[in-house]
Amino acid sequence: MSEQINKNDVTEKKPVQLMPRYRYRLGFEKKDKMIYIGHLDLMTFFQRAVKRAGLPIAYSKGFNPHQLMSFACPLSLGCYGYGEFVDIELEHPMDEDEIVSSLNAAMNKGMRITSARALCEGEKTGAAVVTAADYRVTLGIKADNTERLINELMGLDKMEIERTSKRKTKTVDIKPDIFVLSGDNSGEKTVLNMRIATGSANNLKAELVCEYIYRYLGIPFEPYTLVIERLALLKGGDKGFEPL
Hints:
By secondary structure, this protein is of the alpha+beta class. The protein has helices at 39-53, 96-104, 126-129, 146-154, 206-217, and strands at residues 22-30, 69-71, 80-90, 111-118, 130-138, 160-165, 168-173, 178-184, 191-197, 227-237, 240-243. It folds into 2 domains: 22-123, Pseudouridine synthase I, catalytic domain, N-terminal subdomain (Alpha-Beta Plaits); 130-237, Alpha-Beta Plaits, CATH 3.30.70.
């Protein structure tokens, strides 16, 4: 006969008690000599700054714990960033102004925290929601009649250019990923303002737009003559964009 199990002898599993999450989105600027620090080094820089600032940063569980921190979108090497974002998770809540002042005291020249706000429960990470970015690019040339040039470009059916990724080169149409394009020719060099697709779904580099324009004009493209500034990261889509 099989033995009957006494329900009182069965140990019921208790639900796992999850620690409360205190998540914050930090806005920051990256300029001066700090623009030459790559994304991986930037992550290390922030991790050390958080430690120096004494923030109660939360760590992942497992054999290799790491700080719970995620950047909205990597910034290309050599680009200025004036509207960057990183999400962090703390073990207990802090005043937003205190987070900003504590981190800025631990930052190097060229890096500055501009804002901090507590994220709502269930709010997605910046990396999950960013869809576009605003750029200002100073070209290494002064293009004639910029307004006419922009109108010609935006009137094209396609803007095809070769793009290399994972050791493969293919021709892509970048026009659908350009939402806004305008130019200013009042200074010594032409300045372009653009809003382009940015994020995990579609990611168009401002440098690639400039390369297409140079080739369209029949001018040799020299990427190191560009001054690229990312002004803002945005979320949204066809119905409109808004800051993170």
